[in-house]
Amino acid sequence: MAKNDSDLFDRLRQVGVRKRVAKTLSGIGDGASKQGVRAAQSAVSELRSLADEIERRLPIRSRSRAATAKQDRRAQRPASNRKSPAAPTPKTAAAARTNGARAPRGQNKAKILESLKAGPKTASEIAKETGIGTGTVGSTLSKMATTGEVQKADRGYGLPK
Predict the structure, then answer these.
(1) Neighbouring C-alpha atoms within 13 Å toward the C-beta of 115
(2) Structural domain range at position 154
(3) Is the pLDDT score of 94 beyond 60?
(4) Residue 120, domain CATH
């Protein structure tokens, strides 16, 4: 690993990026494969999005002047000059719904159980009702069925009788 690669790797690890991801990102260069470049571009986009979200959550007095000025410029720009966002991919659409934040421990489970009080439902029905991702609902239901908190119904899952 070259000096620059090693420095970038160390910086990525210091901010909490997983070792494997940090190694891949620090190794991106002119000889990188298309797949590696796409993965790096995706990571950069996601990290920018997360940084923006963190800045938005900071109290106004704590925000850097540059960040505040940037937001002010964006707000003053006419709508016709703003870049239109690209059509969201399924992965970015899910990230946009959740704003990159995870639900507090047990909240999804509580929402799912509350939804099932009305009667048996499929994972997609619960997902639409609660706003939780369909995959998250499905995997949570499977785990809950294993522990006996819910049971398989003729169609979907229901509360045990």
Answers:
(1) 24
(2) 107-158
(3) no
(4) 1.10.10
